[in-house]
Every structure is written in structure tokens, then in C-alpha cells.
Amino acid sequence: MQIAVSGGKGGTGKSTVAVNLAVALKKLGANLTMADLDVEAPNDHILLGVELASEEPVNQFMPVFDYSKCIKCRKCAEVCEEHAIITMRDGTPFLMPTLCSGCRACEIVCPVPGAIREGSRTIGHTYVTETPYGFTLVTGRLREGEERSMPLVVAAKKKALDVHRRIGGVLLVDTAAGTGNTVSKAIEFSDLLIAVTEPTPLGIHDTELILKLGKLMGIPTWVVVNRADLGERGKVYELARKYGARVVAEIPYSENIVESYIKGKPIVLSDYPEAKVFKELAKEALAFGGVV
Fold it and tell me: Which of 97, 106, 120, 135 has its Cα between 20 and 30 A from that of 251?
């Protein structure tokens, strides 16, 4: 079973829900792998109070020009959709590395064998961390200044799937904010999408976007309303009905959750009333997936 936790708008409490859900699932006996695919700002390890481990670089193809063979035909620049290759007045190509997506189109169209050689650059790293809660956390982290996060999302998810296939059970994916291609890739093939929102104007606006995405991808979608007592949660229910989603939980604004966030200790392990929300959510998710 693959569960994705997303949320459209940033700052809705997506990672808090994902982390507490992960711990609750493990407490119920599920084999679990967690993937933090918010590669531009991964923070699940912080909320779990662990240090990232087993760092491995993720490299991306980058063309290297052999100017002794280049005939200055400009075909590499013409085919580059990212405009990462520009040419001088005489046709000499020049690469802007941070714009390169690694698609290899330049290498394919180059008419001179060897004029474009294989090169690479490190765009980020993946980490495989054993948590004290009994499950593995796979994390992707993009290097500062890099503009292409998709290859890292793909690499981190592949690594998480490798772990998941070995142990079975549940793969819990925590995505980035928004509804862009990296979010679509993160939630791809999920059996359940949990959209975490807040009943604010921006939260409601972006909730509709993530519900549209879930419907487009054919993924059953649940909605968790965080800070439910601070806005117009009725509008969230209206959107859920519109897109065939289900509101499964409401979480009130809570200083206890804020405190657990700061301490790096999931609130689901506490005796606070808020812990019950995550425990019930975990039970429903397992029952939905036929795991229990």
C-alpha cells in the first residue's frame, strides 16, 4: 500500500501529519517505509528527532563540449528546450549548468561523434536513515542553487520503493507543497492521497488544486483539516463533496502540537488529546488498504 500526504499550500502541517501518521502506523504493527520527497526543504527527520545517515550523491548528465571536434553547427543550442546552451557569434556552444535538465537532446542531435562527451554534476543527495521508531526514512535533499528537483525526487522515490519492496507493508510518501510535476511524481501510483489543508482563503484555494490533481490521477482522496477552528472549514467540506473526497479528521490549533514540533518528538506518542486524531487516522488508513 502506498499512501501520499500532500497539501497544495505550504505550511498547512503536511509534514506534521505525515510524521505522526508514520509513527502511528508503526505502532499498529505495520511494516513501514517513509519517504520525504520535499527535496527542496525536507524536514521529516527534524520532526522525528533524527540525524540523516547513509548519504549518497545523485548525479545528472551534463554535456561536455570537445571544441576540437565541434563544427559549430548550433544544433545543440537549437534543440535545448531549457535554453541551457547558448552559442557565440561564431557558433561555439556554451553551457549554463544550472539550467541543464540532463535530457541528452544535445548529445542525440550532435552530428559529430565525440563532440559532446558524457559529463555529470551532483544535484543533491539521498539518505537512508533508520529511525528509533522502527521504520526507515528515505530522504531527498537538493543542493542549494539547483533549479531542477525532478531527478532527485525520482531517485529518492526509487530508493524508497526498493526498501518498500524488501519489507512490504506501507510506503508513506510526504510530498512538497504545490501541485507541480514533482508532486505528481511523488504521489504517482498511490492507493490513497491524504490532503492536509487549513480553512484559510489560500488554504481553501490550494485544496481545490490538490483535489483536482487527485481526481485527475484517479487516486481516492481524504482531507485532513488542520487548525480547523481558525477559519471557514465549511468551505473545505464543500470542496471535498465537489471532488468526491472525504474529510476524515479535524485538528484544532494546538500549542501541544507546536511544542512537540519544537522538541522533535511526535505528539502521537504523548497522552495529549490531539494524539487520538493520528491514531484513528492510522487505523482508518490500514483498514482502507486492507492491511488490517
Answer: 135
Q: Kindly state whether residues 205 and 76 are assigned to the same domain.
A: no
Find out whether 272 and 282 touch, Cβ atoms under 8 Å. no
| Residues recorded for the chain | 292
Domain span at residue 233 reads 2-57+125-288
Same domain? 261 vs 130: yes
**What is the value of pTM for the model shown?**
0.90
- Per-residue pLDDT tens for 166-203? 999 999 999 999 888 999 999 999 999 999 999 999 98
pLDDT of residue 276: 93
